[in-house]
């Protein structure tokens, strides 16, 4: 199990959501395909357990965002408002992120937030997913 594998599995989950046209694990410099999703690992916390100095457990926060173009605010909000439930449903269906984590410890969606991506005004919603990984 690894954080990179978990992040990639999370990108796959976001990319499979209805309406998402592109999903990536590296934020692109420019993009004009919306809605698009991006994910990364944000927080790392390793624990030493019973194996001397080896890290045997870790708790990590995966962050995902889904961006839409903000040309019409009401339409952008309507597009985004379905994703917290879609992401939650996908995580419940796959709580090990395709076997890359032991467990999902917490799921926190945010409210729609204005942003800019390569000078394009966007509205995005962010998902913070805390996961537990056992290495040994």
Explain this structure to me?
- By secondary structure, this protein is an alpha+beta fold.
- It is 24% helix and 43% strand.
- The protein has three helices and six strands; from the N terminus they run H-E-E-E-H-H-E-E-E.
- It has helices at residues 3-15, 73-80, 83-93, and strands at residues 22-24, 36-48, 55-69, 103-109, 113-117, 120-134.
- Strands 1, 2, 3, 4, 5 and 6 form a six-stranded mixed β-sheet that branches.
- The radius of gyration is 16 Å and the shape is elongated.
List keywords for this structure.
136 residues; alpha+beta; Alpha-Beta Plaits; 3 helices; 24% helix; elongated
Summarize the structure.
By secondary structure, this protein is an alpha+beta fold. The chain has 3 helices and 6 strands.
